């Protein structure tokens, strides 16, 4: 249980919390103690210990189902947000996902984190998100330690994460610990459920868009467990009922499949196996189709080297690919893929209750197939050069309490990134024509980059209810996504750093004030940050990104900056709870070939971003929820004049991103009706209304000649969703 707390009754304030793998360590002098373990929603357990030597104590907690007036069992100290060292990190309670209304009624991790400060939606209905001014590809998304390169279904309207299979969600906004790396802006670390090692259980739901089912239970009681969770949409099944042959043969669905198993080999070793498989299928009869999806697999071994040293060894596989089928008399396939093979070794050394050393290594082999076009005979009609890269990292960090009030965590991550053969590599002249071509054999190193990423955080506790925090971190990114789409597309291209493309680098400093009110019932924080960005990527006017062997010649390189203020107020306990988040920020870029070399707003720049979330438990059967969001429109480039050549209208455009989309705002409602709940069975209905007051939010604005007067130009706004009701039935037994 991640974050379960272990406390010592005789020594108030002494204790520990379980790490990502459920391991904890407490150092005490010899004597008799009562040790208590507790976790939200579970009955606390107390063991009496005669401590005369190091001991290993496991706690088996059971769900607390007693119906009392009110009892709050917390997985963390009430003021842990004050005492914990980390800043720029937020955790989501999976129970909140069940109540927060989102589009089509689907519980969605990526939509919900967009309600937190500093995290902004990439567009209407999109699963893409921007963190503290970063681009969507600058977020590292992990599922049981495996990288998920495309986390969206149906062009972004759904995320790939089935909430029934999720145990823990953490978001680091650029201030992540040294064990994380590879992206500039954030880490979204998602852990899958381990399953129930006590009894067999089934849960699921049936909705308008999709249905899901989860099966979990023991492999060997009290020693191992498994969980299998699946979800699928069924728009294609209803299409079969149509008499129109075009609609009847259309394919439009996605599916997810999560599986995980764990087994306790002995008191010192536990093994975990987990995997995710998901795919989207869009097609029109036999003439056109596009398939894309992710596959991940993780093997982990937890090992207690000693009573103070914890080890985690992981072997990880990740694959993202898409395939486009076109049949216009000649059948052709377009294929692209990115694959990772990784090994991680992490250690945690507990020198004392407030003295922890973390260190480890990480090695990843990247294989990127940018694009292959094949005919029906499987003969390559066109093939871009495959990319191979080897990424390695060594990290170390030390968390230490300098005094009862002041604590510090400092460390560094040492990274190497090497682009390798086989393949051809180009250098370009000033007009982007290939000047030289170099060919490297398999295993030959073409170019290597070495970087040091220092990180440090401070926490000064003013009193039991408030603290000041400060941090500095450097992050380096060596994989880059090329996209002309605002919110991302399944066919976006990933490229590694090379002789032409340098690693992206960010340096971020932040300062925060944290305060609790009313006996920790209310939690408040405000953070300010400044981020300096190097080697940022943009594109030349008219850039050709798809199936261009010389795509690196289409890229411009520059710098950027992002700075802002974040505020967050949350009510944590009681029948009514929720939060308010506000972000005031600017995100700017500077390129020699754009806007005369002056700073200009990045397309994800949004000055104001507000989210209000409310959840009210009316009684034991009904829970109501609502969200309201507002943000400044994205920065865009609109035409300012036009002219005609041979009867065709041509446009003059303003400076890059000199205009704004209209402001976006929306109100959603949700309700959950708990029909029945017993020890062995639970059933409920969930209802939601997306965009309750029917706001015409702009998804896209295009310009055309007025039909009555061609000398005039009119703007046409496209709105996707005005008013979307939905419902689903959920069960558990």
Produce a short descriptive summary.
The protein is mainly beta and about 725 residues long.
Question: Would you give an account of this structure?
Answer:
By secondary structure, the chain is mainly β. 3% of the residues lie in helices and 59% in strands. It is built from five helices and 47 strands. A hairpin with a 4-residue loop joins strand 43 and strand 44 (682-690). The longest helix has 6 residues, at 94-99. 35% of the residues are buried. The model has no long low-confidence stretch (mean pLDDT 87).
Q: Give the amount of beta strand, in percent.
A: over 45%
Number of DSSP E strands = 47
The helical percent reads under 10%
Category by helix and strand content: mainly beta
**Could you say which overall geometry the principal axes of the C-alpha atoms support?**
globular
Q: Mind telling me the C-alpha Rg?
A: 27 Å
* Weakly predicted, low-confidence segments: none
Overall pLDDT score: 87
Helical run tally:
5
Main sheet?
Answer: 22 strands, antiparallel, barrel
Question: How far apart lie the N and C ends?
Answer: 22 Å
SSE blueprint and pairings:
Elements: E1 5-8, E2 15-17, E3 31-38, E4 45-51, H1 80-83, E5 89-92, H2 94-99, H3 109-113, E6 119-121, E7 129-131, E8 139-143, E9 146-147, E10 152-153, E11 158-159, E12 166-172, E13 186-192, E14 201-207, E15 210-220, E16 224-233, H4 235-239, H5 245-248, E17 251-266, E18 269-284, E19 288-304, E20 309-327, E21 331-352, E22 355-375, E23 380-383, E24 387-401, E25 406-420, E26 423-428, E27 434-440, E28 445-463, E29 466-477, E30 479-482, E31 493-496, E32 504-517, E33 522-539, E34 555-571, E35 576-590, E36 600-601, E37 608-617, E38 622-631, E39 635-636, E40 639-645, E41 648-653, E42 659-660, E43 664-677, E44 682-690, E45 700-705, E46 713-718, E47 724-732
Parallel strand pairs: 8-13
Antiparallel strand pairs: 1-2, 1-3, 3-4, 5-12, 6-7, 8-9, 10-11, 12-13, 14-15, 14-47, 15-16, 16-17, 17-18, 18-19, 19-20, 20-21, 21-22, 22-23, 22-24, 24-25, 25-28, 26-27, 28-29, 29-32, 30-31, 32-33, 33-34, 34-35, 35-36, 35-37, 37-38, 38-43, 39-42, 40-41, 43-44, 44-47, 45-46
């Amino acid at each position: 249980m991640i974050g379960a707390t272990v406390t010592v009754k005789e020594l108030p304030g002494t204790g520990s919390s379980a790490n990502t793998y459920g391991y904890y360590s407490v150092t005490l002098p010899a004597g008799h103690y009562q040790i208590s373990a507790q976790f939200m929603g579970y009955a606390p357990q107390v063991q009496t210990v005669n401590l005369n030597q190091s001991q290993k104590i496991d706690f088996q907690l059971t769900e607390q189902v007693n119906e009392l007036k009110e009892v709050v069992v917390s997985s963390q100290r009430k003021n842990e947000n004050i005492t914990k060292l980390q800043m720029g990190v937020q955790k989501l309670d999976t129970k909140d996902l069940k109540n927060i209304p989102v589009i089509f009624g689907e519980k969605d991790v990526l939509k919900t984190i967009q309600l937190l400060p500093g995290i902004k939606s990439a567009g209407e209905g999109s699963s893409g998100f921007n963190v503290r001014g970063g681009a969507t590809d600058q977020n590292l998304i992990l599922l049981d330690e495996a990288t998920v390169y495309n986390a969206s279904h149906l062009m972004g309207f759904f995320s790939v994460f089935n909430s029934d299979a999720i145990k823990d969600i953490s978001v680091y906004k650029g201030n992540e610990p040294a064990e994380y790396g590879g992206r500039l802006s954030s880490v979204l670390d998602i852990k899958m459920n381990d399953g129930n090692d006590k009894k067999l259980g089934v849960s699921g739901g049936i909705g308008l868009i999709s249905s899901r089912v989860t099966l979990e239970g023991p492999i060997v009681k009290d020693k191992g467990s498994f969980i299998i969770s699946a979800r699928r949409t069924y728009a294609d099944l209803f299409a079969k009922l149509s008499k129109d042959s075009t609609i009847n043969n259309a394919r439009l669905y996605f599916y997810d499949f999560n599986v995980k198993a764990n087994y306790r080999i002995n008191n010192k070793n536990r093994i975990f196996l987990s995997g995710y498989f998901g795919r989207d299928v869009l097609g029109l009869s036999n003439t056109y189709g596009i398939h894309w999806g992710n596959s991940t697999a993780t093997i982990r071994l937890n090992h207690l080297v000693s009573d103070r040293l914890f080890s985690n060894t992981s072997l990880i596989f990740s694959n993202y690919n898409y395939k486009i089928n076109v049949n216009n008399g000649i059948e052709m396939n377009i294929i692209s893929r990115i694959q990772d093979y990784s090994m991680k070794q992490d250690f945690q050394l507990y020198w004392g209750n407030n003295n922890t050393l973390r260190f480890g290594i990480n090695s990843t082999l990247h294989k990127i197939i940018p694009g292959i076009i094949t005919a029906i005979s499987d003969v390559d009609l066109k093939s871009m050069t495959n990319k191979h890269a080897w990424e390695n990292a060594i990290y170390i960090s030390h968390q230490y309490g300098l005094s009862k009030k002041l604590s510090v965590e400092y460390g560094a991550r040492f990274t190497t990134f090497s682009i390798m053969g086989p393949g051809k590599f180009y250098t370009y002249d000033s007009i982007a024509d290939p000047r030289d071509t170099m060919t490297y054999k398999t295993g030959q190193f073409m170019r290597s980059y070495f970087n040091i990423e220092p990180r440090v955080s401070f926490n000064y506790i003013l009193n039991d209810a408030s603290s000041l925090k400060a941090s500095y971190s450097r992050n380096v990114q060596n994989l880059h996504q090329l996209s002309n789409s605002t919110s991302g597309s399944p066919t976006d291209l990933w490229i590694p750093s090379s002789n032409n493309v340098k690693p992206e680098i960010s340096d971020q400093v932040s300062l925060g004030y944290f305060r609790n009110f009313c006996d920790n019932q209310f939690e408040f924080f405000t953070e300010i940050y400044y981020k300096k960005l190097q080697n940022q990527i943009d594109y030349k006017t008219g850039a050709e990104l798809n199936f261009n062997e010389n795509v690196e010649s289409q890229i411009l390189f520059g710098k950027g900056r992002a700075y802002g203020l974040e505020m967050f107020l949350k009510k944590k306990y009681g029948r009514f709870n929720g939060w308010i988040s506000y972000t005031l920020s600017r995100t700017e870029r500077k390129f020699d070939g754009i806007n005369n070399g002056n700073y200009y707003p990045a397309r994800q720049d949004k000055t104001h971003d507000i989210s209000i979330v409310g959840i009210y438990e009316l009684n034991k059967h009904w829970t109501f929820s609502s969200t309201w969001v507002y943000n400044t429109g994205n920065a865009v480039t609109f035409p300012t004049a036009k002219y005609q050549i041979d009867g065709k209208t041509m446009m003059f455009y303003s400076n890059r991103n000199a205009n704004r989309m209209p402001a976006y705002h929306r109100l959603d409602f949700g309700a959950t009706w708990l029909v029945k709940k017993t020890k062995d069975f639970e059933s409920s209905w969930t209802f939601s209304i997306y965009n309750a007051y029917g706001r015409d939010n702009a998804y896209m604005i295009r310009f055309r000649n007025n039909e009555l007067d061609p000398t005039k130009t009119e703007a046409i706004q496209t709105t996707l969703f005005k008013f979307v009701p939905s419902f689903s039935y959920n069960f558990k037994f």
